[in-house]
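User: Round two. Same drill as before: sequence, then structure, for each protein.

Assistant: Same drill it is. First protein:
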Amino acid sequence: METRFLEMNEASNFLRISKSTLYKKVMRKEIPCYKIGNKTIFDRVELTDFIKGHFIGIKTATINQFDLLTLPSLR
């Protein structure tokens, strides 16, 4: 079972950003977090919602039959 709350190292790994980037986002209040004494913790659910709120979309390309023949990884 995964823990619901993450420490700074765990949150940076979860978000796949450096600790320094995460720290900057915390200082600018750009990311949801909680302070308990001198410790900063993050709620995994809130981080997931944060990621979903910053989704910019993915551009998709149309692949025709010729492309499938020339791309060995898609055969």
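Second protein:
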Amino acid sequence: MKRLFIIACLFIALSMNAQEVNWYTFKEAVELNKKEPRKILVDVYTDWCGYCKVMDKNTFGNKYVADYLNKSYYPVKFNAEQKEEITYNEKTYKFVAQGSRGFHELAAALLNGQMSYPSVVFLDEQVRIIHVQKRIYSAATF
């Protein structure tokens, strides 16, 4: 019984130490940036992307990475196939149906029309693109 109690306490302590990325929507990050300027990191993903799931688990699931992102950026999780419209800088970005799927115009704008997942877009404090890192994982990393 004592052993079970110690294991339970250890599990609780470790889970309290776990850090997760505090994801924002694009709109939330832009609004927060107006009050307290900070760079924005946008994780552009899709629900069907296996590499995206691996990156979520191995990269964004790392407590050191999560802690750094939460302190240094406004991290945004952006589904490149979401249907919700987003208005930014007086322009409304919409979902564009294409074949059996489609894409969101904001994702296309962030990725310069080169849709590849997962991709990470770094934006400066003025919400301008600094760098786009496309297709972070390859088949060789599995």
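The domain at 20-141 is CATH 3.40.30.10 (Glutaredoxin).

User: Perfect.
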